[in-house]
TrEMBL record:
GO terms, molecular function: aminopeptidase activity
Pfam hit, one: Peptidase_S58
Organism of provenance: Caballeronia novacaledonica
Identification of the protein by name: Aminopeptidase
Similarity annotation: Belongs to the peptidase S58 family.
Keywords: Aminopeptidase, Hydrolase, Protease
InterPro entries attached to this UniProt entry: ArgJ-like_dom_sf, Peptidase_S58_DmpA
């Protein structure tokens, strides 16, 4: 794959280049069931006790996520972030609540309730969503599997996803930026499940127009979830500005944010936490708004790269009723 942008990547080239961030998958791949769960932990502690500054941006709101209202209001996340299919959202939210209660037995009694945070995409072309195959144990399995080293492609929540009528899924990237004497890392992770094949652009080349895949064009019913992590000290207002720049990276791949696509971004920082029990928040000096442009570039380049990483990492998958999504690599091999 051609380089994306001018910024250098971190050593892993994934969201885990932001120190403390880990990712885990649970993949279900058997016959008509092609789905799963992916979990992103912002740090290895108890996120309910040490909340993480965050903000979300809804680019196109055709989605069924849980937890966005409180993130917008309070500017923090208090569980790991979970990704799954549309019909698995409620189950995974319950699993997040149970996990938080197990670590904090006074939740919902003496302590406030917990805000589960689950994002979804519709993987119904390859996966039989009516089977309701996602169980709470799958969340725990993905949570336990969280590591700085993780797979991308048709794994976890990305198992049944389609992107530009090819095989989509999980993709990730990272970028390193310098603001005066400070060096910061920004990482991206996407659940890519959107787009029509003729729209696909790879590193500026209109690749989709040249591909012959036998894809069956249908109205867009996909989505993309875009996560941005950074170690730069930002507040929730600035993080929302960072999340908005994911739309630039998404557009570069050819997306027009179609009617049936839920395009949602979340950005968080690991530079500090918000203690659950403290009367005050110890915040480091924040990056000035006038110095945010390198981070904006990192977000846009990272999201573009992560989407292409999902496409190049995925393998061809067959699923429900014989439906099949060919991988981009296989499609390119047969390109005229």
């Amino acid at each position: 794959m051609m380089p994306i942008g001018s910024l250098e990547a971190g050593p892993r080239g994934t969201i885990a280049d932001v120190a403390g961030v880990t990712v885990g998958h649970c993949t279900l791949a058997q016959g008509a069931v092609q789905t799963g769960v992916t979990v992103i932990r912002p740090h290895d502690g108890d996120v309910y006790r040490d909340k993480v500054p965050a903000a979300a941006c809804v680019i196109n709101g055709f989605g069924k996520s849980v937890g966005l209202v409180q993130v917008e209001e309070l500017g923090v996340i208090e569980t790991p972030v979970a990704l799954t299919n549309t019909f698995g959202v409620g189950t995974i939210a319950n699993a997040q609540i149970r996990a938080a209660i197990a670590s904090n037995p006074r939740i919902g009694r003496d302590d406030p309730s917990v805000n589960p945070l689950v994002f979804e995409c519709n993987d119904g072309y390859l996966n039989d969503m009516q089977a309701l195959a996602i169980h709470e144990a799958h969340y725990m399995s993905a949570l336990d599997a969280c590591s700085a080293d993780f797979e991308c492609g048709a794994v976890g929540a990305g198992r049944g996803m389609s992107c530009f009528e090819l095989k989509g899924g999980i993709g990730s990237a990272s970028r390193v930026v310098r603001i005066n004497e400070h060096v910061y890392t920004t990482g991206a992770l996407v659940l890519a499940n959107f787009g029509r094949l003729p729209q696909l652009i790879v590193a500026g080349e209109a690749v989709g127009r040249t591909l012959q895949t036998g894809a069956n064009a249908r109205p867009e019913q996909g989505s993309i979830i875009m996560l941005i992590a950074t170690d730069a000290p930002l507040d929730a207002r600035q993080l929302r500005r960072l999340a908005m720049r994911s739309a630039a990276g998404l557009a570069r791949t050819g997306s027009v944010y179609g009617h049936g696509s839920g395009d949602i971004a979340l950005a968080f920082t690991t530079a500090y936490t918000v203690p659950h029990d403290s009367d005050y928040i110890a915040m480091p000096p924040l990056v000035s708004d006038a110095r945010l442009d390198p981070l904006f570039q990192a977000a846009a380049d990272g999201i573009e790269h992560a989407i292409l990483d999902a496409l190049f990492s995925a393998e061809t998958v067959a699923g429900r009723e014989g439906h099949r999504r060919i991988s981009l690599k296989d499609a390119l091999r047969t390109r005229p």
